[in-house]
Amino acid sequence: MNKHKNAIYIFITIILSVCFCLFLYQFDNKYTHQSTQPINGIIYLEDEDFALNKVLYLSREWEYFPDALLTPDTLPQYDGYRKYVDIGGKYAMPHGSATYRLILMLPSAEASYALEMPEIFSACKLYIDGKPLLQLGNIDPQQYSEGICNRVIPFTAGGKTEILLAVSDFSAVYSGLNYPPAFGIAQNVLRVRSIRLLLHSATVLIAILGIGLAIAFGIKGNLRRGILCNLIFLCLIGYTAYPLFHSLRITSFNPWYTLEAMCYYGLLLLAILLQCDLYEVRGKFTFFLALPCALGTLFAIVRVLGAAYWNIEISIAFSFISLFIKYYFAACILLLSCWALWRRKKYSVLLMSASMSFAVFLGFDRFFPLYEPIFGGWLGEVGGVILIAALASALWLDAMDAYRFRLTYEGNYHHMEQRLLMQKEYYQQLSEQIQRSREAAHDMRHHMRILRTIAGESTQIAV
Amino acid sequence: MKKLLSLVITVFFVVCAAYPAFAMTMPPLIGFDPPPSAVPTIITDIRRDYNGSDIFQMLVVKQGESISALSQQLQNDLSYIDCLTDQIDENGQPVYYMCPVTWDLSRSTDTSLPGRIEIHGTLNYASNYTLISTLPNDIIWQAVVQGERASGAEVLSDINVNFLQNSPIPLGEEAKNKISTATCHTSIPGEYFNCDFVWDFSSVQINTAGKYTISGIPSLPLGFALPPNYVAPTRTVVVMPNDAPDLSSALFDNLNGYINCKWLFPLQKENNVKLEYAVNTEEWKQDLQSTYIVFNSYWGNSLNINLNALSEKTDYYFRIRYSEGSADKFSNTLHIRLENKDFLIPNAAPPSFDIGGDRDAGDTGGNVLPPLTQPAPSEPSEIAPPPLVPVSPPPSEISPVPPQYAIVTQAPPLDISAPDDDLKPVYNEEKPTVMEEVTENSTLISGTRLSQLTALSDVVLFEKHGIAVELSSSLLNNLHLTDDNILEVYIQKSENSGFNLAVFADGNAVDALPETTVYMPFDADDGDKLECVKTDGTFVSNAYYEKQNGTAQFELQEGGNYQVRHIKAPVKAPLEAANEATSQTLNSTDNAVASESQSKLPVFTFIAIFGITIGACLYVFVLRRQNE
Questions:
Q1: Looking at beta carbons, which residues of chain B come within 8 Å of A94?
Q2: CB 3.0–4.6 Å: which of A152, A309, A382, B180 could bond B164 by disulfide?
Q3: Taking Cα atoms as reference points, which of A25, A29, A48, A70 lies closest to residue A166?
Q4: CA separation for the pair A170, A309 (Å, rounded)
């Protein structure tokens, strides 16, 4: 395969990755989802807003009461600072308590609606129309306890409906309402949630199958590579299984989010190590290539594990480190792939295409920060899945090659055995012939000796 | 040698990584209380300027008027006087003490004669302060009684004329706004007073549209004379017809980096206003994302063109497209070409931390969401936006280019024919779509939403950049907006803790905003005295600092440009301050304080350790390579 052909494949991969990113950004993004949004803490909804299985993502202009834990009873007496916040938008609340409020102006006829509350950090109490419908953890700062979970709250309402959400956080990386809640007709909300869970389950299942493959590969073949692949697949499960995990049970922040962050950054580290192994790059060079990612993983663990103690400046500092790690990883695997392509290493086209794809996804993750998936995963997550799929393909191709080689070898062996048997048979025949010739010669010699004896005796008689 | 070189490079790398990190982790040097001392602080000098401005206002009283007329001004502006002490802060700067002053007007009763008089006051400094022996306990402030002086007029050193409102003058009508304010500086350095400045509109031909240059003269109080070689300032005013939007009044504002255009023709929502632009010889496009053009008032008569968004050496054409009856009409075309952008004050980069990934602990600070535009609630969106009709930009008639940028205005393009009927925008004229909009600086809401908001509470909150403005519900109800009307609220943050507030009801400016409460994020300490002033320094109201949210709270009565600033609180005696600080630390059970003290780990330590570790590993690697 010549270099020009490889370059064309890689170029096509980049174009496809860009198109896929744009597709995801446009059609699987809560922030680009076309729907009516709240303004000044009020959203007016009509029947048309719920048509065509539509689910609304309430991301704009929630009324926000900082440092206040309000209930429907205490809200009217509140007289202090408040503002409007966009969910996932620009505001910083490292730790503390706050209340969010949103007024829904629904069609007057009562109907069954559902509100999907994403993970709220780290304790919350939700009131809808004055009724407490959800409590996770304890929001009271004196008796604070964490409770993080993804829940769907079905309720029946019509006309003016008030959502009041009091939150407290003293222990998480993000605080309060960080992901836009989904709202709509109950079955629509549940349908979207089911699709999301299904997709993530499928990813986890594929990763589990990958683990099986990697174990077999490790036992039967290269142990080191098998261990690396196993760890990579475990990391993939660790950071894509969160919707399943948080939908199933109420958790605390630690150790689960630390594990998730460790898996995310650990995946970058392991992917570099595996690529070095595949390209047969060994020794110090591998160590120094992987060092920043290893440190990044370590810092991520420290950052998330100690989230309760770090201030906002530390959080921002880690954000920059995270950015550096992402760019470094993209550049590192890109350069490795280019080098491998230049040296005509095995699988270099496949892995380089995947690396390019991951780099594009990480780039889009930076260029389009306003992205939150409705169904699938985050851009880094999708890029990681593609890279992992490529690595798994490389392993699979490796195994296939070995299998093919074994089959060929077996065929050759069999053929050689047959030839050997033929040779043996021929040898035996030859031996028999030689024996026969030998016997014939012996007989002849014996016969000649007799004739010579008879001839001698005949001469004496004549004399 | 190679080892030494590698060591130097590694140390350099580590220092580069560590220095900014640790430099940022240093505790703030400003604002620390001085160490406790039993020795009284000595006041070494008395300053008359305010807040380090090096200028101070002279009091002016009319001849024969009671001296008590000055009492309010003294109360507002001169309750405290800056005193220089013998203390030096950590930065080597002298420490000031705001000393309370009691003014005794009974000692300056004679206002019968024009000229300077003295107002006497007494310094009421705290017990742990003392005056240096060369300073008197009394303070004397200058005031001037207006009138012809026997000794001749006092010659001013300089006159600064404040901005004249750039409202266009309707064709055929007299200008209404002919007076602005001037700041007159006397011969005493730093001393000034304000007076009216009267503009001379005699050169303006009110029956001919165009730009005119006018000049004016300050209306000085008796007893003062213009500075020698005084050159009267000039301003440009525009006379324009009021039967069509006209972009001729383009005015450059470098502070904000835009060109402001005002016109007289009232564009209503029925006019379906579209802002269009063309680049070089390309087709006209609608500026849907407000990339270049921003309306100050969506249905009003003013727009801003953002010069920072324009490219150099490129011709831009701007115009307004609107409908009148069934016909499409256009304003005249504004042509802008920037030869270079060096003269523009660059926009401050927003402190954005839009670092991707919302689950990887790497997106601290959040992201800026784009503007939101959607149909108003009571008006379902049934009308498709009109298709754009491509029209080539008119040929440019570039006037002589001023040094840095050129603005060329043209007469209304009569040669632009109306588009073909087939291409005409299709409007539902009976029921136009009312759009609500939320941008970084503005909120436009419909009467429907407003009525719900007023029903919910006594006040309606509008907030931008953390500046929360609570408008009274009764005020908003009195605007009598119908469901289709739009209320526009503009809250624009400016430098130096300032902001601009403007409210428009159905396109008409609402000037009076009684009982408006504002909360503004502000950096202050507990006990600091704050005040809200207009940008010209006029006192508006006292402001109160809320430590919990870090906001200053104050009240306004009308829209405009405002600023919050410190009224310097008297510096506490060092011993007093130290004791107070200690007791706060020991007694505080406040959760926020506890949390803050808990999280005072060095800032950016992460980055420093990260850099040092990589540097150290590199160093080891290089040394080992050398040994090999």
A1: 599
A2: B180
A3: A70
A4: 9
Q: Which residues pair with A135 in a beta bridge?
A: A125
Query: How confident is the model over B450-500, as pLDDT tens digits?
Result: 988 898 888 999 998 889 999 998 888 888 888 888 898 999 887 777 888
CB neighbour list of residue A46: distance below 8 Å, 6 or more residues apart: A107, B380
The verdict on B29 touching A (C-beta cutoff 8 Å) is no
Per residue, the 3-state secondary structure of B307-332, as one string, reads HHHCCECCEEEEEEEEEECCEEEECC
Phi (first) and psi of residue A456, to 5 degrees: -65, -45
Find all residues with CB under 8 Å of B447, minimum gap 6, and list them. Answer: B481, B482, B483, B484, B485, B486, B487
* Segment B532-560 mean pLDDT: 83
No. of helices (H) and no. of strands (E), chain B: 7, 39
pTM as predicted: 0.59
Amino acid B192: pLDDT: 83
Task: Please state, in angstroms and rounded to a whole number, the distance separating the CA atoms of residues A260 and B531.
Answer: 49
Highest mean pLDDT among A248-262, B111-125, B126-140, B588-602: A248-262
Compute the average pLDDT of residues B278-307: 74
Residue B608 has pLDDT above 70, yes or no: no
* Percent of chain B whose predicted confidence (pLDDT) is above 90: 2
Give the residues across from B259 on adjacent strands: B252, B305
B508 - beta bridge partners? B505
Q: For residue A364, count other CB atoms closer than 10 A to its CB.
A: 23
- Residues of chain A scoring pLDDT < 50: none
Q: What does each C-alpha distance from B552 to A91, B432, B459, B470 come to in angstroms? A: 18, 41, 18, 14
Residue A162 neighbours by CB distance under 10 Å: 17
Partner-chain residue, chosen from A44, A96, A178, that has the shortest CB–CB distance to B377: A44
User: Do the beta carbons of residue B100 and residue B571 sit within 8 Å?
Assistant: no
Chain A residues with CB-CB distance to B546 below 8 A: 80-81
The segment with the largest mean pLDDT, out of A125-134, B348-357, B387-396, is: A125-134
Query: Could you tell me the two tokens for B142?
Result: 């200058």
Looking at residue B625, what is its pLDDT? 65
Looking at the complex, does the CB of residue B355 fall below 8 Å from at least one CB of chain A?
Answer: yes
Report d(CA B409, CA B261) in Å as an integer.
11
A105: CB partners within 8 A, 6+ apart = A42, A43, A44, A45, A159, A160, A161, B377, B452
Contacts of B491 (CB under 8 A, 6+ apart): B441, B442, B462, B463, B464, B465, B467, B469, B499, B500, B501
Assess whether pLDDT exceeds 60 at residue B21.
no
What pLDDT band is residue B400 in, cutting at 50, 70 and 90?
Answer: very low
B432 contacts: CB under 8 Å, gap ≥ 6: B269, B270, B272, B383
What was the pLDDT predicted at B620? 64
**Which site among B364, B435, B520 would you substitute to test the A interface, given the most A Cβ atoms closer than 10 Å to its Cβ?**
B364
CB neighbour list of residue B472: distance below 8 Å, 6 or more residues apart: B458, B459, B460, B513, B514, B515, B516
Listed ranges B3-7, B22-26, B227-231; the one with the highest mean pLDDT:
B227-231
φ and ψ of B211, to 5 deg: -100, 135
| Maximum average pLDDT range among A13-22, B434-443, B500-509 | A13-22
Q: Taking residues B81-110, what's their average pLDDT?
A: 77
- What span, in angstroms and rounded, lies between the C-alpha atoms of A81 and B519? 6
Comparing CA positions, the residue from B425, B561, B435 lying closest to residue B493 is B561
Q: Which of B354, B606, B614 to mutate to test the interface with A (most CBs of A within 10 A)?
A: B606
Contact B380 A92 (CB under 8 A): no
| A319 closest CB neighbour out of B362, B519, B621 | B362
Q: Peptide bond before A255: cis, by omega within 30 degrees of 0?
A: yes
